[in-house]
Amino acid sequence: MPPITLICGAKNCAKTTFSRYLLNVLLNKYTKVAYLDTDVGQPEFTPPAFLSLTIVHKVTSDLTVPCLKTPERCLFFGDVSCKRDPSTYLSYVFAIYNYYRKEYCISDKGEYPHKIEVPLIVNTPGWVKGPKF
Question: For the chain, which domains are there?
Fold first, then answer.
């Protein structure tokens, strides 16, 4: 099973900086890394209001510069905050995560011997206090 890392913390605690750094560290070891972005307010690789799974192949030389990438899987949530509809938000998160598991994590050596297991970084929003903050 490939490594899966969930980046969680309060707003403005450098989650994005850490996830970019971790992405580069993993890309030095693996040929590609999956990035599940659940931060609909400030996503890493897509416009706001989307949840996405992006497969990254290249190290980012400048960690301070954001860049848009074409995601492999992307769902439009329609809001920059998940607090209005947390049920739909969670169903989207699990839908994309299940896609990742099917395509990049679960490997049946007999059926798909060529399948490469890809590590996953999960970027989360700074919503750690719950819906009544």
Answer: 4-123 (3.40.50.300)
